[in-house]
Specification:
Helix content: 55-70%
Structural class: mainly alpha
Strand content: under 5%
Distance between the termini: 58 Å
């Protein structure tokens, strides 16, 4: 298939340019940004380049934290028991994390992070956020720090979890605006609020809920468009797609079960369609809109 292989070659050249070039000098052009987002929506192909692309997009190598990581990864942490308990439940069906070596690698990253950022330490959910990074990227520790600090994930994990409360508030406001019938059905009739079903979505960027091939696609977009925007757009997409199915349910437990494990069912594995529909929310769920909702939250 010549067309297919040419497509792969073009893609490979594009991603190689991002990985090897000074990506910073070209990212400012509107056309490049447009091409980047459009390619990310289709997923990073070939997938072996995924980890390096994530590193380049997050500019993780600029942190120069290799020495610090080497120092912290084997230091004792007060979160040792918690971390060990959680890594056994993190993607147990993957080859990497079903083995001792993979579990130890995940443990080292989480231990190092708990010592690097003592205000966050270790929080349940972090193992799921880190797992997909570790399965793809060599500089996992640096990419994680970028996600937490530059991409704004850190406040979701601090002791008061203020960032998480804000994101759940934003989801509630957006739900009321875009899917008012569903909002009424969940919040008023059944008293099911976003904190009861959506916390994991934000804390793990859906890694806790969804199959890894889909999680990788979500991470692809997250590194270009931001984790918060990506989760909110995807959340609205999934809820909109299942609106009729959810509103046909009458029992609290059935609704919670649907929101926990069945939201991707209507797509029948068509992740391209799901990503495409989520990106259509990009023009509605903008940084400007989220900033305006944040002002209400802080008022």
């Amino acid at each position: 298939n010549k067309g297919g292989s040419r497509f792969e070659d073009d893609n490979e050249q594009f991603w190689a340019a991002i990985i090897n070039n000074d990506y910073s000098s070209i990212s400012s052009t509107v056309q490049f940004q447009h091409t980047l987002v459009s390619k990310l929506r289709s997923g990073i192909h070939p997938s072996r380049m995924r980890g390096q692309v994530w590193q380049a997009l997050s500019r993780s190598s600029l942190l120069h934290l290799d020495t610090l990581y080497a120092q912290l990864k084997d230091e004792p942490t007060s979160y040792e028991a918690l971390i060990r308990r959680d890594i056994h439940r993190t993607f147990p069906n993957t080859d990497m994390f079903s083995q001792e070596s993979g579990q130890r690698a995940l443990e080292r990253i989480l231990r190092a992070y708990s010592l690097y950022d003592t205000d966050v330490g270790y929080c349940q959910g972090l193992a799921f956020l880190v797992g997909p990074l570790l399965l793809n990227a060599k500089e996992t520790f640096c990419v994680l720090i970028r996600l937490m600090e530059t991409y704004g994930m850190r406040t979701l994990f601090t002791l008061d979890m203020e960032g998480l409360h804000l994101r759940l508030f934003q989801l509630d406001v957006l739900l009321l605006e875009f899917l008012p019938n569903l909002h009424h059905f969940l919040n008023t009739i059944h008293e099911i609020h976003p904190q009861m079903y959506a916390s994991h979505w934000f804390l793990t960027v859906f890694a806790y809920n969804f199959p890894l091939p889909l999680v990788y696609r979500i991470y692809d977009i997250m590194f270009a468009e931001g984790p918060i925007e990506t989760v909110l757009r995807l959340a609205l997409t999934l809820l909109k797609k299942s609106l009729a199915e959810i509103m046909a349910l009458t029992e609290f437990e059935d609704i919670m079960d649907y929101l926990s494990v069945k939201l991707i069912d209507p797509y029948n594995g068509n992740y391209d369609l799901m990503i495409e529909e989520a990106m259509a929310f990009g023009e509605l769920v903008t940084k400007k809109k989220l900033d305006a909702i944040e002002k209400k939250f802080s008022a």
